[in-house]
Amino acid sequence: MASDILQATLQLALAAAPWLLAGLAVAGLVRALLPQERLQAWLGGSSVGATARGAVAGAPLPLCSCGAIPAALALHRGGAGCGPATAFLIGSPGIGIDSLAISYVLLGPLMAVVRGLGAVVTALATGLLVGAGSLARQTPPDPGPDDVGGDACGSTCGSTCGSTCGTEAAPAPASPGRLAELRGGLAYAFGDILDDIRLWLVLGLLVAGVLLATVPPDALAAYGSGPAVMLLMALVGIPMYLCATAATPIAAGLLVAGVSPGTVLVFLLAAPITSMATLGVYRREMGNAALVRYLVGIVVSTVALGLLLDLALAQTGFDPLTGVEAATEWLPHWLEWAALIALVLAATHPLRVLRRLRAARSA
Question: Looking at the predicted structure, is the pLDDT value of residue 79 above 70?
Answer without folding.
Answer: yes
